[in-house]
Design a protein that fits this description.
Blueprint (H helix, E strand, L loop, with lengths): L14 E6 L10 H19 L3 E6 L6 H10 L3 H18 L15 H13 L3 E4 L2 E4 L15 H6 L15 E6 L14 E3 L3 H11 L3 E7 L3 H16 L4 E7 L2 E3 L2 E2 L10 H7 L2 H9 L7 E2 L2 H26 L11 H19 L4 H20 L5 H21 L6 H11 L6 H16 L3 H14 L1 E5 L4 E5 L3
Parallel strand pairs: 1-2, 1-7, 7-8, 9-11
Antiparallel strand pairs: 3-4, 4-5, 5-6, 9-10, 12-13
Helix pairs in contact: 2-3, 4-6, 6-7, 9-10, 10-12, 10-13, 11-12, 11-13, 12-13, 15-16
This protein binds one RNA strand of 76 nucleotides through helix 1, helix 5, strand 7, helix 7 and strand 10.
Length: about 475
RNA sequence: GGCGACGUACCCAAGUGGCUAAGGGGGAGGUCUGCAAAACCUUUAUGCAUCGGUUCGAAUCCGAUCGUCGCCUCCA
């Protein structure tokens, strides 16, 4: 609320109430929606990991102008439109590793609560009905603009809002809208109508989290007017502080410009997932701090892919090491790795405690990966080395789990890549080629071995020779 | 016009008062390897848009300038 970072102290110790604005279900989601969902998914996961009892509410707006327009266009009901795109949303989010919220309320299931809130606001003198509409009177609410840093006079003088003579001020916003011919409607004391956009969040958040809760989130574009209006309504309604901490995620940009529906410069999640693994997209979204803009490009996605590959490559090395037959203690030069192991969790926690700095956290993860690789390069063996490697890989898995990345086996990763890269090669064919080449290698027929290796490389499969076997991976970059 | 954010190497990106400016990608050289690949090592910003100021000390605070973007209208 202060516009800067603050120490996090929840209203009730150990418990967190978090409300995040979900989507308006009228079309398929693009990467911008994914970012918001992933950011708050990470926040929730991290808070839970640190022991908070989090109640996460994420609403779905299932009635509004665009849904009505879409329904008319496709000649189906608004419920069908909203239902369809809500399902698409859940599907996309599941692929991206975004967990479901604890409570996922629809606006239209809470008309009663909204009507109750609107009536209270009218009774308290904060709202007025006109011709079947009801408006919130902004000038009655002291402190309007406190979230977005705007002041009412500036807003009025610079108003680009449609002038509507029925409103007392151009800033007043609709709590309830009279329905037009053919539109869906609900009965209300002011006639047939439907809710305005902002009121659903007030009604539903107070129902599920109480009048005052800890975290409210959404995209930075919701700060004004949506969240500003929510504050006005909610605090006017309850007389209590609405939200303690506001969290707004930055935008995805394309050529430095905000990715958005209206600019038409958006890529849908489905389009992107045709080319990249969901894990790559999720990782990409974590490479910058959640408040910063993040530029979408193939270069960036490819780099994310390479980074993840580096992780899985290390996992392969670890399993090779752990599967190797027991042997005597030797080459234990583990000082640096052990030092890092003992400080690693603190580093990770500090990064995440500092406003969920995932980019910094990833830096520490790769620092550990490098040290681990370095240790393995020393060809250590014995119980002590074994324990250290297990400890390192457990730590990596633990923090990967918090971020919900790095949760595949290397084999799953490469098989998945094979699909997204459209490499049509069955496991059997591949194994056969490798066998064939292994034979050639044993006979020191290097020419033949190289032919096979090149042949596979053409198809996008790279081979890595080990002492007495060969591993395949997918060529990246 | 009002309000706000940002500008760190070839690219991406942490760092917001004090040891040698994280990490990833790319480049160059090397170790390893039949050759590769991977991994590792060395190297690639005496400098953090520019100019001033505060301070013993600033990428980090303050001011100005330039540039980019966002919100003020539906928007994650």
């Amino acid at each position: 609320m202060s516009g800067r970072k603050e120490d996090f102290v929840p209203n009730t110790p150990g418990k967190v109430g978090m409300y995040v604005c979900g989507i308006t279900a009228y079309d398929v989601c693009h990467l911008g929606h994914a970012r918001s969902a992933v950011v708050f998914d990470i926040i929730k996961r991290y808070l839970r990991y640190r022991g908070f009892d989090v109640t996460h509410v994420r609403n779905i707006t299932d009635i509004d102008d665009k849904i009505i327009a879409k329904a008319a266009q496709e000649n189906i009901s608004t419920d069908e439109v909203a239902g369809k795109y809500t399902e698409e949303y859940y599907h996309d989010m599941e692929l991206l590793g975004v967990g479901r919220a604890d409570i996922e309320p629809n606006a239209t299931d809470h008309i009663k609560e909204m009507l109750e809130a609107i009536e209270t606001l009218i009774n308290k003198g904060f709202a007025y009905p006109v011709d079947g509409d009801v408006y919130f009177e902004v000038s009655k609410f002291e402190g309007y603009g406190k979230l977005s840093g705007k002041n009412v006079d500036d807003l009025i003088s610079g108003a680009r809002v449609d002038v509507d003579d029925r409103k007392k001020s151009p800033l007043d916003f609709a709590l309830w809208k009279a329905s037009k011919e053919g539109e869906p409607w609900w009965e209300s004391p002011w006639g047939k109508g439907r809710p305005g956009w902002h009121i659903e969040c007030t009604a539903m958040s107070s129902k599920y989290l109480g009048n005052s809760f800890d975290i409210h989130g959404g995209g930075a574009d919701l700060t004004f007017p949506h969240h500003e209006n929510e504050i006005a309504q909610s605090e006017a309604y309850s007389g209590e502080q609405f939200v303690k901490y506001w969290i707004h995620n930055g935008f995805i940009t394309v050529d430095k410009e905000k990715m958005s529906k209206s600019l038409g410069n958006f890529f849908t999640i489905k389009e992107i997932l045709n080319k990249y693994e969901p894990e790559v997209v999720r990782y990409f979204l974590l490479t910058a701090h959640y408040r910063s803009p993040i530029e979408f490009s193939d270069v960036q996605l490819n780099e994310a892919e390479l980074s993840i590959d580096r992780y899985y490559t290390t996992v392969l090395r670890v399993s090779d090491f752990l599967e190797a037959p027991e042997s005597k203690e030797k080459n234990i030069n583990a000082e640096e790795l052990e030092e890092l192991l003992s400080s690693f969790k603190d580093k990770f926690h500090n990064a995440m405690n500092d406003d969920f700095n995932t980019a910094s956290a990833l830096g520490f993860i790769f620092e550990l990966i490098r040290e681990l690789n370095r240790f393995l390069d020393g060809k250590p063996s014995g119980q002590k080395a074994h324990d250290i490697v297990v400890r390192a890989s457990d730590l990596l898995a633990e923090v990967g789990g918090v971020l919900n990345i790095f949760n595949k086996t290397p084999k799953e990763w490469y098989s998945a890549l094979m699909k997204t890269k459209n490499i049509s090669f069955s496991d059997e064919d591949l194994e056969q080629k490798i066998q064939e080449r292994q034979q050639a290698r044993e006979e020191k027929d290097w020419a033949k071995a190289d032919v096979i290796r090149n042949e596979l490389a053409e198809l996008g499969v790279v081979l890595e020779d080990k002492k007495d076997s060969t591993r395949w991976k997918i060529k990246l970059g």
